[in-house]
UniProtKB/TrEMBL annotation:
Subcellular location: Membrane
CDD domains (UniProt xref): CYP90-like (cd11043)
Cofactor section: heme
Species whose genome carries this gene: Erythranthe guttata
Cross-referenced PROSITE patterns: CYTOCHROME_P450
Annotated Gene Ontology cellular component terms: membrane
Name this polypeptide is given: Cytochrome P450
One GO molecular-function entry: monooxygenase activity
Length: 473
């Protein structure tokens, strides 16, 4: 009897100790929210909101409902949505915990050997190879080529016109620049065929990966295969020309990557890696730059004081250029206010809505557990439009960027951040500054449409492609 009583007291003591410990250390749990319908989850809701220009509000309402961390399901995978400065830091500075990861649709269209999918040593190797072509010291040699493409474009599509649609023309221009600098591909039937397949390819990048005939995703996959086939042929031609000594190894991106050799003369970058990363840079250079330039044109039409300041800066630079000469790297360095306008445009209308990572291990964040293998989803505008970070965030104010060092880290992320910052950042900057220089010094314009809204598909698209009335100077 005494033994039974002692045993009971011992068991009760253990029980109360366990209960007390649990109270002191709350049970870890996954974030609040719902995974929704299996596989589809909230994918359609997000895509519809993006196309209706309510995606930022949709994400903001979700944050108000669930807090800084919530679970959902996007594009076939369980996902945790996080936002804020700490969230951005986790996304861009936690390579040991999070891996590069895109949605299944992006991975299948762009390939699994592109920079968006690589991690560790493979990521460093490919990033280092791309940097040989995309770093400022290399890009300054291509300013003349960019100017040449812009001059041809303006003569063909702007001069003699009274009205133009800016977005489709800027997409045409940025693709021509890409073809010239990335591939060394001259104007003609092959370039025209490539742009057709490329446009079909990017349409289904943010979609539910159902490979069913006649769907967007199915058309994009087919177009991706055609683009890859064309690039494979182009690589073969350039490899032959390099072997014969007929091309410089830094003539364009493809020859640059082919020219990188190991200790024993072997190619360091595989053919698949060249194809997949060229496709990635095609997408980044085509969409992000064209969207940025388009929205700067809209800003300059809406804010006369901003237009006057940009024009004054560009006219001063133009005075110092001798007839028949190109802009120089030093000239671009003088375009400080113009780039502040570009940065403020990127803050208010970031081309990239958000992105994904994948957990390599179980992560504890904000008191919740993010299970291994789940997607982590971040949205650019959540910090860009946060009034605790940017005073009066809905007001267009380029002065915010007069001193970039004053901007806290991991809150302004149109090009990503940390080791994951976009390697094409400087390329986009050059492309944008040179284009705006020629537009403001050669044309005046006003908007044909007073509607300032836009939709995302998945990039921002202003109403009707931003039609403007233009007059030459």
């Amino acid at each position: 009897m005494a033994i039974s009583l002692l045993l009971s007291l011992f068991i009760l003591s253990i029980f109360f100790l366990v209960i007390r410990k649990r109270k002191r250390q709350p049970t870890k749990r996954v974030p609040p929210g719902s995974l929704g319908i299996p596989f589809i989850g909230q994918s359609l809701d997000l895509l519809w909101a993006m196309r209706a220009n309510t995606a930022e509000k949709w994400m903001s309402d979700r944050a108000k409902k669930y807090g800084p961390v919530s679970k959902m399901s996007l594009f076939g995978k369980p996902t945790v949505f996080i936002h804020g400065q700490a969230a951005n830091k986790l996304v861009f500075a936690s390579d040991g915990k999070l891996s590069n990861h895109q949605t299944e649709s992006v991975r299948m269209i762009l390939g699994d050997r592109c920079l968006l999918e690589l991690n560790g040593e493979d990521h460093k190797r490919i990033r280092k190879a791309l940097a040989l072509f995309l770093k400022p010291d290399s890009l300054k040699n291509y300013i003349g080529k960019i100017e040449e493409e812009i001059s041809i474009h303006l003569e063909m599509h702007w001069v003699g016109k009274t009205e133009v649609k800016v977005l489709p023309l800027m997409k045409k221009l940025t693709f021509d620049i890409i073809c010239s600098l990335l591939f060394g591909l001259e104007r003609g039937a092959r370039r025209d065929e490539l742009v057709q397949y490329f446009q079909e390819m990017i349409e289904g990048m943010w979609s539910i990966p159902f490979n069913i005939p006649f769907t967007r995703f199915n058309r994009s996959l087919k177009a991706s295969l055609r683009v890859q086939k064309m690039l494979k042929k182009l690589i073969s031609e350039k490899r032959t020309q390099l072997a014969k000594g007929g091309e410089s190894s830094n003539q364009d991106l493809i020859t640059c990557l082919l020219g990188i050799r190991g200790a024993h003369g072997e190619e360091v970058i595989s053919e698949d890696e060249i194809i997949h990363n060229v496709m990635l840079i095609m997408v980044a250079g085509y969409d992000t730059s064209s969207v940025l330039i388009t929205f700067i044109v809209r800003v300059l039409a809406n804010y006369s004081n901003v237009h006057e300041a940009v024009l004054k800066e560009q006219e001063e630079i133009k005075k110092g250029i001798s007839y028949g000469c190109f802009l120089t790297w030093e000239d671009l360095g003088k375009m400080k206010y113009t780039w502040e306008v570009a940065m403020e445009t990127l803050r208010m209308v970031p081309p990239i809505f958000g992105g994904f990572r994948e957990t390599l291990e179980e992560i504890e964040y904000q008191g919740y557990i993010i299970p291994k293998g789940w997607q982590v989803f971040w949205v650019t505008s959540m910090t860009h439009m946060d009034d605790n970070i940017f005073l009066e965030p809905s007001k267009f104010d380029p002065a915010r960027f007069e001193n970039p060092a004053s901007i806290p880290p991991y809150v302004y992320v149109p090009f990503g951040g940390g080791a994951r910052i976009c390697p094409g950042y400087e390329f986009a900057k050059i492309e944008t500054l040179v284009t705006i220089h020629y537009l403001v010094t050669r044309f005046n314009w006003k908007l044909c449409c007073s509607n300032n809204s836009f939709k995302r598909d998945p990039m921002p698209e202003p109403t009707h492609g931003l039609p403007i009335k233009i007059t030459p100077k």
